Amino acid sequence: MKYIILLFISLTAFTKDYTVQEGSLTYTVNHPLKTIYATSTNVKGKIDCTDLECSFLAATPTKSFVSKDGNRDVKMWHLLKANQFPIITVSGKSNDKNFSKIQVSIMNKKYFYTDKDFKIKLQDTHAKGFLNIKLSHFDIEQPSLFGFSIEDQIRVNFDLKLKNTSQGL
Amino acid sequence: MKMFIILSIMQLISSISYAKEITLEDLSFSNQDLSTSTLLQDLQTKRAGMLETHQNLGYLTAALLTATMITGKEGDVTNTHKYLGITAGLSYYATAYYAINAPEVEGATKSGSSLWHKRLAWIHGPLMILAPALGVIAERQLNKGEDIHGIAKLHKPLAAVAFYSFLSSLAVITFDF
């Protein structure tokens, strides 16, 4: 019996859980006449790592993004159907602790991005990086102003502070 | 006992080797963050549609106002200026109608460019009533063979202020300052 307990202890020592303590997500929209930034600080997430693999899920409410213009934020809620699909999620799984593919879900439409489109820099309890998404991948209509549409590609920068919440030893 | 030990070990290994699936419920979002409403979505769709019409009519009004300003002559009134002015005025009121009647959305904060856009409407709005009225008075004076005098003299400067404040309200939405 004591071997089982020892095995359990030794194996649980390899599991690590992290939760997002605080952080921000900022998206950048490019239009020929201006560049727009909007930030959300309501980011929640969890990373669950074992000795073999890691999985994570990060999410933010669509309505939590704030730009310099309140009216523009409301337009973004409309385009992303925030009242029907209130949460945007990013998730991934890896077997070598380096994520090579992540899944983004907007309006319940899912799209996989490879490491060409994103970069995650993990340092202790700090995750920083970017993700380049395309509106067309989620069938989101590109808004226009003065006859010019915004660029299809949107860059999302993230800066997250993690907290180790492992329950192992 | 032996069987129990084997099963326990297998269970432990399988549960620890693979990371568990994390769901949205694990992230403890508030009910407000997760709430959905088709009614609000419909309201937002209506608002977006009306504001898009407001935007397109705004461009048309800007073009018509520019043409009206160009055709205005000192001490004279031409039919081109008069009819362009009437068309620009109608286009302006139609533009305003779509902005005023667009439904407000709960949770939206008035800030930045759209706030300035709205503030400038308090300048060009009243002037777009006053300037055409003074234009009518000025035309009557000219038709009587009189020089433009009295309050009618304010038609040109007030129309200019209305024009430039209207263009400014368009510029603050188009560019970020």
Give me the strand/helix succession of chain B: HHHHHH
First-to-last CA distance of chain A: 19 Å
* Percent of residues in β-strands of chain A: over 45%
Strand elements of chain B, count:
0
State the CATH superfamily name of chain A: Lipid/polyisoprenoid-binding, YceI-like
What general form of chain A does the structure show? Answer: elongated
Unreliable segments of 5+ consecutive residues of chain B: none
By CATH reckoning, the class of chain A would read Mainly Beta
Rg of chain B, rounded, reads 30 Å
Q: Given the C-alpha coordinates, what overall shape of chain B results?
A: rod-shaped
Count of separate DSSP helical elements of chain B: 6
How much is the radius of gyration of chain A in Å? 19 Å
Helical amount of chain A: 10-25%
**What is the strand content of chain B?**
under 5%
**What structural class results from the helix and strand content of chain A?**
mainly beta
Order of helices and strands of chain A: HEEEEHEEEEEEEE
Measured by residues with Cβ under 8 Å of the partner chain's Cβ, the largest interface is:
A-B, 54 and 48 residues
Secondary-structure content class of chain B: mainly alpha
Examine the coordinates and then state which fold CATH places here, giving the name of the CATH topology of chain A. Lipocalin
